[in-house]
């Protein structure tokens, strides 16, 4: 097969887990003998070719009002104009046409289309090439990609969202196949009427995480070091975690690692106040970070598509406290490798912290079984093989048509 992958970013530009997973998939498919190329975006204008670890990568300059992956948050009006153009951006379609003409792929695997817009679909359809759409987030449902606090938005905001996504549901029915990185994210789209009569698959992401350390078993009376690592934003539940940690009264520390918009970070620092137990450690190597904490908290308030950070924590033999949202329920099993809490019951997070601080026997049991509970997510070969089967099925169907 000759496969073109389209995503907003590609290494070394990484905004989240989608880019990490995509690089593993692309390199794995190339190692299996398939021809691969990647089309991604950069802030600089034009189209040029780059090579990343032996993979051909096209870098296309985003044609919109600003670069959405910068640290600063633009005004609401500028964001609205950006999303208005991103609802269908024909200027980005021209890049897709040029790369399709050069590469002539047999199948196109679309991932995060933010910035590209669904105009990419139309250009691929025009070329008569089958599309496999992989769902990493809610971008095709909502401009903000998270549907965070959707139930609290006003009529005007809801109408705006519907306006900006009026074509997406209809056009989703014309892709060849759809892949959810979790059952949760796929079902969210299906219940909204997307991807009707389209072949549907679930392929869980995976990471190659070596088993380095044995579980760190706790003793009675020890303090508890709590960790959070990821994007610092409201949707990720950072404010909820800070408030609950402060209210819990446990003996311990809270280490917060990651980056975010400058105004979000300022808000979280203000919320932490002068509490010397709370430390913002910035961007750090994840494996080094896991070695410094006793429990990982993934307090996402939005419907996390999968939550690979939870997998990473479990692979590091850490019990995980996670919200019962989205794909986190597919990795964190309550009472088996962690504790699930409910954002609709805010104190459930503080209760979980207190439980793992006080109940040393429970902590040790969860830590001991953490890594073995997520074996599927530690097999990159499994993930690549499953994607290969999906793409091969699409190309064979297309040949038989």
Automatic annotation (TrEMBL):
CDD domains xref list: GT4_ExpE7-like
GO molecular function, one term: glycosyltransferase activity
Domain (Glycosyltransferase subfamily 4-like N-terminal) ranges: 16-208
Keywords: Transferase
Domain of life: Bacteria
Protein name in the entry: Glycosyltransferase involved in cell wall bisynthesis
Annotated SUPFAM superfamilies: UDP-Glycosyltransferase/glycogen phosphorylase (SSF53756)
Keyword flag Transferase: yes
């Amino acid at each position: 097969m000759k496969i073109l992958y389209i995503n907003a970013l590609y290494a070394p530009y990484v905004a989240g887990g989608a880019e990490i997973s995509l690089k593993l998939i692309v390199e794995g498919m190339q190692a299996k003998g398939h021809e691969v190329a990647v089309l991604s975006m950069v802030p600089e204008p034009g189209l040029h070719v780059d090579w990343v670890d032996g993979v051909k990568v096209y870098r296309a300059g985003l044609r919109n009002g600003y670069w959405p992956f910068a640290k600063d948050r633009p005004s609401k009006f500028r964001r609205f104009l950006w999303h208005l153009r991103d609802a269908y951006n024909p200027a980005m379609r021209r890049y897709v046409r040029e790369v399709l003409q050069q590469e002539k792929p047999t199948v196109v695997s679309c991932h995060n289309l933010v910035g590209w817009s669904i105009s990419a679909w139309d250009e691929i359809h025009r070329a008569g090439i089958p599309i496999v759409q992989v769902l990493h987030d809610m971008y095709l449902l909502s401009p903000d990609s998270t549907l965070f606090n959707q139930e609290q938005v006003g009529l005007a905001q809801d109408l705006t969202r519907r306006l900006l996504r009026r074509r997406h549901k209809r056009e989703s029915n014309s892709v060849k196949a759809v892949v959810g990185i979790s059952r949760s994210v796929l079902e969210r789209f299906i219940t909204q009427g997307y991807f009707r009569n389209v072949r549907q698959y679930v392929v869980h992401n995976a990471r190659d995480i070596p088993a380095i350390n044995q579980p760190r078993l706790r003793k009675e009376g020890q303090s508890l070091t709590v960790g959070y690592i990821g994007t610092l934003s409201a949707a990720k539940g950072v404010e909820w975690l800070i408030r609950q940690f402060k209210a819990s009264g446990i003996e311990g520390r809270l280490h917060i690692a990651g980056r975010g918009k400058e105004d979000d970070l300022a808000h979280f620092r203000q919320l932490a106040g002068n509490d010397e137990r709370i430390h913002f450690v910035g961007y750090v190597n994840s494996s080094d970070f896991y070695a410094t904490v006793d429990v990982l908290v993934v307090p996402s308030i939005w419907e996390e598509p999968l939550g690979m950070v939870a997998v990473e924590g479990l692979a590091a033999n850490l019990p995980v406290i996670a919200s019962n949202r989205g794909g986190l329920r597919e990795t964190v099993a309550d009472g088996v490798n962690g504790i699930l809490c409910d954002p609709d019951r805010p104190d459930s997070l503080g209760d979980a912290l207190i439980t793992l601080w006080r109940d040393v026997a429970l902590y040790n049991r969860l830590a001991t079984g953490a890594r073995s509970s997520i074996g599927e997510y530690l097999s990159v070969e499994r993930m690549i093989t499953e994607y290969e089967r999906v793409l091969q099925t699409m190309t064979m169907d297309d040949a038989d048509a």
